[in-house]
Amino acid sequence: MLKTIQLLKGKTDSIKRFHPWIFSGAISRMSTDIKEGELVQVVDAEGKFLAIGHFQHGSIAIRILSFTPCEINDEFWRQRLGEAWRLREALGLTAQDAPGNIFRLIHGEGDRLPGLVIDVYGETAVMQAHSYGMHLVRNTIADVLLQISGGRIKNVYYKSETTLPHPEEQLQKYGFLRGSCEDNIAVENGLKFHIDWLRGQKTGFFVDQRENRRLLEQLAKGRRVLNMFCYTGGFSVYALRGGATLVHSVDSSAKAIDLTNINVNLNFPDAPHHEAFAEDAFRFLEHTKTSYDLVILDPPAFAKHKSALHNALKGYTRLNAAAISRIEPGGIIFTFSCSQAVSKEQFRLAIFTAAAQCGRHVRILYQLHQPADHPINIFHPEGEYLKGLVLQVE
Ligand code: SAH
Fold first, then answer.
1. Residue 131 in contact with ligand 1 by CB distance below 6 A
2. Whether residue 44 has its Cβ less than 6 Å from ligand 1
3. Could you give all domains of the chain from N- to C-terminal order, each with its CATH number?
């Protein structure tokens, strides 16, 4: 029997619109012995059933798993994860003859599993819990992953040391839950990438840029490319295959530069026209003497919260103005924001301001976003986070 949390009168509208979060301010009554991560039943002021979800202390108090009464048992997990697998199958991402074996299998709320992220790299799934409820159920999920993938997933690596709010309570933060695997090279659109599950950001790779990297490849021929905030060098490797005459990769982290060099060498050993620099992006733009005609700006989220929005927008303007003012006439800029707090319109306005400051004519060629394996739950617009513009600068 699940413990019950009752909501205040007038605080149920968002649930009726299937928003998957309940904030702590909406709660009127709950027993004091509900534990972190425990499954709870949510009812309205009259005691009518609303939802089932994972409880957690904090601003988001409940992450909803179901809006209809049901048992959250092995069968539930099999259904939800199976549904997610079938979507990736329909997208052509799971096929043995697909051009790659990297994709996102679970994108939290987008797959109706708030608090859970799973990326697949070949035979290994990397699981990240963003809620304590998902942490508690990690072993069940690991077993179900092996079942629903028809033998495709053999190893499950757990990596939640940076995403769980209560580090002291975590018995296991990272490591293999099922199987194990020494070989951590996976393939995206026919290109090889070394994935660092253990120390890498996110699950080790930015899976969400797959389609945007492919577009970059198509525009790279004969261009001198500057890949800012390169991390694993994804865009650099695609630019090299696309026929760029020179590629410079920049990241402030020395570890990222090592990863970039590893990935360039995996695909294009001793590429003489690639060079990587461990340096601050703004500083690099200030002093570089090289002229570029294709620049990628994919910085970390400048606004992690709404409170940082104003400064974040200024940051995007400053960064983009630096690139727009330096790029050669006819040059192309791939510019991104992965800040969930920054809307598409706000981001575009920041770029507009940058173009106006530089006094150069700028056209939008493409408007980019996250790929279909990072689906956006229409009831959870917060799930739309990645936006990008491909600009041409006269
Ligand atoms: N474009 C990458 C992902 C970028 S993630 C890809 O496709 O995989 C953001 C990167 O920006 C991180 O690797 C981080 O080390 C780097 N970074 C953060 N601040 C920086 C700065 N001021 N200058 C240069 N790099 C920075």
1. no
2. no
3. 3-66 (2.30.130.10), 74-189 (3.30.750.80), 207-393 (3.40.50.150)
User: What are 187's two structure tokens?
Assistant: 């393939």
Q: Mean pLDDT for each consecutive 10-residue tract of the chain (394 residues)? A: 95 96 97 94 97 96 98 98 98 94 98 98 96 95 97 94 71 84 93 89 91 98 98 98 98 96 95 95 95 97 84 96 97 96 96 97 98 98 96 97
Please report the DSSP string for 353-393 in residue order.
HHHHHHT--EEEEEEEE--TTS---TT-GGG---EEEEEEE
| Residue of minimum CA distance from atom 8 in ligand 1 | 206
Q: 115 alpha carbon to ligand 1 midpoint, in Å?
A: 24
The answer to whether the CB of 281 is under 6 A from ligand 1 is yes
User: Are 27 and 61 a contacting pair, CB within 8 Å?
Assistant: yes
Instruction: Give the pLDDT confidence score for residue 270 in this predicted structure.
Output: 80
> Which residue, among 347, 364, 272, has the nearest Cα to 313 in the 3D structure?
347
3-state secondary structure of 137: coil
Q: Please give the number of the atom of ligand 1 that sits closest to the Cα of 336.
A: 1
Does the beta carbon of 300 lie inside 6 Å of ligand 1? yes
Nearest CA to ligand 1 atom 16: 229
Q: Is position 338 annotated as part of the catalytic site?
A: yes
pLDDT at position 174, please?
84
337 lines ligand 1 (CB under 6 A): no
- Token couple for 324: 């727009």
Does the CA dihedral 231-232-233-235 come out positive or negative?
negative
Please pick, among 70, 230, 338, 358, the residue that the annotation labels catalytic. Answer: 338
Q: Residue 358's CB: how many other CB atoms inside 10 A? A: 18
